[in-house]
Protein: 4503_t:CDS:1
Amino acid sequence: MSDQRKSLSEFDALVLGSYKDGTLTDTATNEIPESIRTSIQEQLRFSGLKGKLGEIRMFYGLGGNDENIPKKIAVVSLGINKDFEQSRVPEALEITRKAVAVGIRSLRELDVKHVGVDVMFHEHGAAEGATLGLYRFDSLKSIKSHKAPPKISPIGSTSTNTDGNLCWNTGLIYAEAQNHARKLAETPANYMTPTNFANTVKSFLEDLSKVEVFIHDKEWATKHNMGSFLSVSRGSDEPLKFLEICYNGGEKGQRPLAFVGKGVTFDSGGISIKPSAKMAEMKGDMGGAAAVASAIYGIAKLRLPINVVVSVPLCENMPSGHATKPGDVVKAMNGKSIEVDNTDAEGRLILADALYYTSSTHKPHSLIDVATLTGAMVVALGEIYSGVFTNSNKLWEQLLEAGKNANDPFWRMPLDDKYNEDIKKSIVADLVNVGQKGLGGSCVAAIFLKEFVCGLTDDSDVSEKENSSERLFDVDADDDKKIRYAHIDIAGSMITYRDSGYNVKGMTGRPTRSLIEFARLIAKNPDFV
Structure:
């Protein structure tokens, strides 16, 4: 929770930034009395501060009996000299994000109620760092060992945005959205069933204007011939749901941006059951669903002037006497038959129908699916990057920029038709849901999904000469009814084992902030689509 900028007397604690030489940031210098600044700078020199980013020193009672000076002050090194060029927006955002998160986490156990946050190099990054750093998941513990998070408010000017758009309030919204995704993905599967997921998302969207939420059931999916989606849900007693969300922030009839999220609320592997080690983490196999549902929350809160649709197929993948068996053949909504060679390759099966439904019904200009899809992606990229497979160079450049701004980065992977050979060797069906050689698993999964997006454009086969920065941001060569497509595999980035700064151990909620930032770039630059 946040209040707008207040005087220092309103706070019982502060987070301030310092340079390598021990001087405070310009924002802190303008707000902190000279005597207090002098004391801080002297103590920083005496303490042997090396100036490494995130290095922190705590100060108590510097103002004595002066009630206008907060009693607890966390000073965090920015790791750079004072002549840093704030025009480097992604770097300014990330340095601020990290420093503020370190400072706020050092204060949260000290029973503080209201913290003033130095906006440092970028107020958006400061709000993100504070909000993400304060996140904890302890709602299921009978004894709450942690204190309630403090309120946060900015100190220093909030009118010097480096890019004219991102500000303290946008930072709060981006971070709140990611925290929604974190909570959805972290909640155990017996609490976060398909029904509970849909109802939870509906509850945090219900007060937002221009948002419509539809929760469809098995009868609806059957009526729409979603045999691929239905096949995965058969082994579980939990009923499937198909969550459809529409945000109508743009002009009526304007083609929407579309997100599709994989929503397997628990993945046992089905009949092709997984090893028991780390199977508990498969409560997070709906990380893609959590990210896209939370992204539309952020988009609606920002009131971006665009239309957005989100589709989320929700089910469990369980073994039972009703479960789909290896070798079974199912029919997807687009009429293609699929041999299910491995029931643990279920994400692509539920996404197949969701992608076809979304592309054929809503006809978006850009369609992005997000999924914890393949173990091969974990091997390839670990937890640092999310892998992007796309048919559009321009779409890739935009996602790349969004990921850099959010420091929630993407790495491009090949979406190449040569991988089709692996999924078209079935004797009994049009497609098989896994490759025949067991190699390039992430690429094979991506090309499988591409089969279910109708109306694709393709600007990825341009020559090297054409593949310039100017070409990337030109209008795609195909007509304006075509769809740009990207598949984002977050199997590695869905979880982190790190616990520092704004990274909190557990389900990450990625790439929520990057998706919101991508939508903001689209809204800001309509020519991008």
In short: The longest helix spans residues 89-107. The chain has two domains: 8-152, 171-326+336-528.
